[in-house]
Amino acid sequence: MYKTHNFSAGPCILPNNVLQQASKSIINFDNNLSLIEISHRSQPFDEVMNNAKQLVKDLLSVPLGYSILFLQGGASLQFSMVPYNLMKINGTAVYLNTGTWATKAIKEAKKFGNVVVAADSCESNYSSIPKNYTFPKEYNYFHCTSNNTIYGTQIKNFPSLNGIMVCDMSSDIFSRKINIKDFDLIYAGAQKNMGPAGTTLVIIKDEILGKSGRDIPSMLDYNTHIEKNSMFNTPPVFSIYVSMLTLQWLKNLGGISYIENENIKKADLLYNEIDKNSIFEGTAQKEDRSNMNVCFKLKDKSKEQDFNNMCNNAKISGIKGHRSVGGYRASIYNAMPIESIEVLIDVMQKLEKK
Ligand SMILES: *Cc1c(COP(=O)(O)O)cnc(C)c1O
Q1: How many Å apart are CA 228 and CA 221, to the nearest integer?
Q2: Which part of the chain has CATH 3.90.1150.10?
Q3: Which of 104, 170, 202 is the pocket-test mutation for ligand 1 (most atoms within 8 Å of CB)?
Q4: What is d(CA 315, CA 321) in angstroms, rounded to the nearest whole number?
Q5: pLDDT-derived band of residue 2, with 50, 70 and 90 as boundaries?
Q6: pTM greater than 0.70 (yes/no)
Q7: What is the rounded average pLDDT of the residues 115-141?
Q8: pLDDT for 275-288, tens place per residue?
Q9: Whose CA is nearest to atom 5 of ligand 1?
Q10: Mean pLDDT, the chain, whole residue set
Q11: Angle 304-313/338-353 helices, nearest 10 degrees?
């Protein structure tokens, strides 16, 4: 079934039966019309939107008082929408800088007001998550990135705060249990762990909105999209539909508690090999290691060509590390079967034995 073992960091592997169903719906979704040629205002698509929202609600136990949105512009547009909607004029926002994506979020927030970087793991090339930091007396919100896709670190314990908590969960949403009540705004680009590129999930506590004192362009105002059920303009129908299928797949498997266990098993298997294999080493600090993006290196760079060739022969795809880290990154999102990880481990062991 898996001809190629897809370890890509994003867009990422999706469940095979989801791809099968999606391809059928491209041809005939309803009454011999394609999913991508019917009106987004039609009843069949309305059901898709509501179903997708309900699945998010069920899987994450989203309580009352939160809205669920499917927006466009990627997680990257959220870097601007968050401060536009939440940062008061002359206000302050606090950011935790744990890597490339956080750095980009900080850059955009600075265009709206004062940004305090509570902690920054830049000196260690983002190989760890800062833990002991303090908050200024007053701030409009705190922003963190739950999983650092590029450097392979993950926040295991979120700080508890009194203020508004915003989190970029692009690369680990639906991978582990979270308590939605600990967060006021969560956003996630679909293409890491939920579906294809093109939509961004936003889960937002309604009461935090409308307080920035800014005149926000309609498309950038969360309230616009809440009022219109994410259909203020034409939504990315395909991306929302395939996300819905993926969430249904996850629910059928047993939901978040099931997949969290699987993800821990998969990550442990691979990290154990990295630690015991004499020719490889992990790049992230052990306690902060990501269960989604496993970053590692060959101790002896001259073996890289050999390893790359062996990976190619084993049909392992997408494990080249990000250019800012080098080495290798195996992204093992929800849809990655444990068998693919076993194939990678087998190649690592064969290279060690050579
Ligand atoms: C990929 C990624 C982004 C950027 O997502 P786009 O949808 O491409 O804008 C932002 N944050 C994190 C943590 C990511 O992994």
Answers
A1: 12
A2: 254-353
A3: 170
A4: 17
A5: low
A6: yes
A7: 95
A8: 999 999 999 999 99
A9: 75
A10: 97
A11: 140
Gap from CA of 42 to ligand 1 centroid (Å): 31
State the pLDDT confidence band at 324, using cuts at 50, 70 and 90.
confident
Q: Is the dihedral angle over the CA atoms 290, 326, 197, 219 positive or is it negative?
A: positive
Does domain 254-353 sit in CATH 3.40.190.10? no
Among 76, 150, 187, the mutation site with the greatest number of ligand 1 atoms within 8 A of its Cβ is: 76
Ligand 1 centroid to Cα of residue 55, in Å, is: 22
Domain with CATH 3.40.640.10 in the chain: 16-253
The yes or no reply on domain 16-253 and CATH 1.10.600.10 is no
Query: pLDDT digits over 230-281, tens only?
Result: 999 999 999 999 999 999 999 999 999 999 999 999 999 999 999 999 999 9
